[in-house]
Amino acid sequence: MATTADSTIDAVRTSLNYSLPNPTGSELYFNQPRPELTTSINNNLNHDSRDVMIHNLRGREQFFTLDENGFQYVKQETTANFTDKAAIVADYYQEIREFLKQQTGGHQVFIVGHRVRGSESLEEYKPLPADRTVGRPPALVVHCDRTLDSVIEAVRRHMGEQAETLLKGRVRFVNVWRPIDQVVSRDPLGVADWQTCDTSDLIQTRIDYTNLSFNAYVSQFNPKNTWYYLKDQTPSEALLIQCSDSKAGSASFCLHSAFHNPESPSDAPERKSIEVNTIIFG
C-alpha cells in the first residue's frame, strides 16, 4: 500500500489545470459537435492552474494498486499494430480483454472504445469514429473519465439482457493507457493517489460527442492531492486507471492529467499514446 509521497523519490515541479465550479451554478459541459479534427471544442470549463510536485514512482510500482490507489502500472508486452484501426479493434481489444481478466479477476470485459493522442498521428488515425476522440493532443486538465451513473447507463445500453444480472455484481470502468512506439518524455500522464483525494472536490461535467454522451468529473484543487508518474514510461508498461468502481471501500475514481514535463528535452518527440476504455464485471 502507498499513501504518501516519498521524499527520496525524484519529482518534477509543474502546473496542472484544476477547475472551478460554474459561478452561475449551471452544469459544466464539454462539447465536440462534429467529428472533423479541426472542429473547435465548446465548453464552459473554468481552469484553475496550480503548481504541484509530481513524484516519479519508478522502482516502487508494485506498491500502487487499482483498489487502494486508483491506478496501477503493469508490464505488458504487445505486438499490436496501432496504425491500423481494424487491427486495434480485432487484435488489441482481445489482448486487453484477456490482460484485464488476468490482472483484475474480472470474469467479463466490455470494450467501450479507444482514443489515440498525438498530433503526429492525425492523418494515420483520422478514419476512426468521432466517439473515439482520436488524433487529439494530450488532455491537459485534471479529470476522471466516467461517473458511476454513466457506467451503469452504458451497461444497460450495451449489454442487453445480461445488463441487470451483471449490475448485481461488481462493475468498474478502467482505462488502459500506454505510449505508442517510443518512451514518453514530453507530456507524460500524471495520476493522483485516490487516498489523497476527496469526493467533495469533484465537479460533474457533461461530455457530448457526435454519437456519445456521458458524465465525467473535473476537480477543484486540493493541496492534499499527491501526484505520481512513471518517468520514461515505455510501450511495454501499461497504466491502468480506475475511473469508477461499484465496490464499497475500493478506489472509486482516479484523477489524472497530462502535464508539461520541465525535464523533457526541447527536441523530444511529441507524445503518441493509446487509451482503451473498458467496463470490467466481477
TrEMBL record:
Against InterPro entries, the record matches this protein to:
AsaB-like
GO MF annotation terms: oxidoreductase activity
Tell me where the signal peptide lies.
none
Similarity remark? Belongs to the asaB hydroxylase/desaturase family.
Task: Name it.
Answer: Methyltransferase
